[in-house]
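Lab notebook, design round three. We kept the backbone fixed and only want residue identities now. Task for the bench partner: fill in a sequence for the structure below.
Input structure tokens:
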């Protein structure tokens, strides 16, 4: 039997569809006796009337769709903040079942080698060598995953992989292959590419990469099922970066990208479908990684330099084993709860008033106490904003070992805020508003700087340079104290 005969036989008997369904059942059920399990499945195929009656989820029973217990004792990265930004466009909710797994059966064009590829298990990384750090970057279409992934890879000397680019190159090189022609249509319609095909492409790319300290993977996973498959077949990631962005902002960026790059999956119909898929899958996916202590969330509804600055702060915390705390994020996290304090904070913010410093300090104190057992210190961002807050922090928690003042001119701050206004259309970044904000900042910050200079705890860092230059100065300041 030659290859064409084999392909025709497999397609006529619906064998690829059967294998796909059996594999999905095995991955979800993980039976102690896989042989007995497969025998039961094949008996069910006979009862259904043959392979053509089998679907991708025939052997995925409802009771097996719930997520497996998560290892609550797994060590958490001290710098991760498990919060959903206030501009998120999806509800922060628990998930009870896995979201739909968007699989597509690849039938008549599937030959023996491709079928074998689905069931073959192999080591991606050399077990005799240290495994590289794996960073996954996820977010909605247009959230800036590619830009930030490249910046992270360049900054830290990691290898960069774009899953979308992998698939697009494969589609282009195998344009005459019916399987990849079908996948091209799937992607162009805004749907997810078949899960096992995507995983296989990632695995093959990873195996081609020489020894690297780390690898940044852009655009994967897209849902919880893909995350589970990645962990089962490759590894558990070391870090997941989530770029949260407002829905309207995503639409604007995709429209602009379509005009500039002409990507086939940036058509209007596909864009709408991709946004719907993202909205449905993002909350469960983020929650899944939060419970594993692997995710850090950034507000991507800003210009790329501002986002990367925040990522660098998180990296600074990682470098020294510190826990990164942001009062803004702590407030947003509290608002997602149903506590009496969250109702108080919401009422205050809806009136347009500032949250009392005592409430903010209480949130800081609770977050610090919760992390005391697994951190070397705390990196607190944007606090205190006035001398009174600094004095109260010293009385109730203790004086800081180091206070860093990011020093730059009013012209630089104005230009940066104006650039942010142009890229993100933030109303508070208009010229008049910026002038008022800078005036208020200088009025409050000068006494704070003087207060900590007297205590010899202050270091000034020149923030006029590039993010890389500022990062090195921050490291020097911290090294001088610790």
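Proposed sequence:
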């Amino acid at each position: 039997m030659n290859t064409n005969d084999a392909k025709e036989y497999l397609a006529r008997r619906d064998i690829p569809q059967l294998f796909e369904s059996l594999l999905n059942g095995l991955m979800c059920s993980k039976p102690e006796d896989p042989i007995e399990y497969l025998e039961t499945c094949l008996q069910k195929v006979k009862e259904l009337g043959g392979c053509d009656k089998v679907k991708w989820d025939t052997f995925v029973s409802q009771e097996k769709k719930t997520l497996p217990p998560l290892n609550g004792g797994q060590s958490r990265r001290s710098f991760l903040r498990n919060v959903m930004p206030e501009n998120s466009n999806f509800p922060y909710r628990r998930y009870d079942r896995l979201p739909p797994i968007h699989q597509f059966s690849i039938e008549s064009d599937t030959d023996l080698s491709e079928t074998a590829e689905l069931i073959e298990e192999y080591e991606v990384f050399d077990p005799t060598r240290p495994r590289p750090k794996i960073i996954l970057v996820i977010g909605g279409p247009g959230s800036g995953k590619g830009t930030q992934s490249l910046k992270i890879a360049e900054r830290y000397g990691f290898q960069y992989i774009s899953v979308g680019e992998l698939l697009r190159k494969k589609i282009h090189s195998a344009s005459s292959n019916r399987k990849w022609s079908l996948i091209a249509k799937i992607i162009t319609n805004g749907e997810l590419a078949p899960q096992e095909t995507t995983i296989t492409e990632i695995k093959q790319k990873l195996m081609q990469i020489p020894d690297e300290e780390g690898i940044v993977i852009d655009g994967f996973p897209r849902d919880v099922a893909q995350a589970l498959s990645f962990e089962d077949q490759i590894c558990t990631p070391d870090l997941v970066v989530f770029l949260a962005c407002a829905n309207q902002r995503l639409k604007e960026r995709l429209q602009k990208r379509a005009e500039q790059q002409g990507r086939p999956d940036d058509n209007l119909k596909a864009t709408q479908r991709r946004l719907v898929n993202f909205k449905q899958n993002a909350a469960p996916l983020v929650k899944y990684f939060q419970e594993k202590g692997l995710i850090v969330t950034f507000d991507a509804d800003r210009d790329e330099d501002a986002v990367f600055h925040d990522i660098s702060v998180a990296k600074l915390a990682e470098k020294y084993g510190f826990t990164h705390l942001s009062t803004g994020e702590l407030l947003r996290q509290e608002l997602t709860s149903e506590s009496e304090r969250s109702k108080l904070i919401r009422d205050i913010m809806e009136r347009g008033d500032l949250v009392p410093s005592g409430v903010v300090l209480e949130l800081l104190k609770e977050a610090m106490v919760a992390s005391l057992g697994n951190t070397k210190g705390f990196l607190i961002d944007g606090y205190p904003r006035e001398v009174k807050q600094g004095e109260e922090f010293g009385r109730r928690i203790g004086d800081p070992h180091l206070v860093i003042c990011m020093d730059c001119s009013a012209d630089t701050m104005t230009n940066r805020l104006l650039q942010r206004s142009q890229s993100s259309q933030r109303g508070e970044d208009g010229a008049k508003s910026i002038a008022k904000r800078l005036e208020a900042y200088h009025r409050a910050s000068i006494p704070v700087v003087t207060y900590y200079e007297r205590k010899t705890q202050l270091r000034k860092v020149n923030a006029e340079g590039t993010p890389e230059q500022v990062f090195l100065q921050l490291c020097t300041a911290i090294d001088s104290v610790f």
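Keep this in mind before ordering anything: The CA atoms of residues 167 and 198 lie 7 Å apart.
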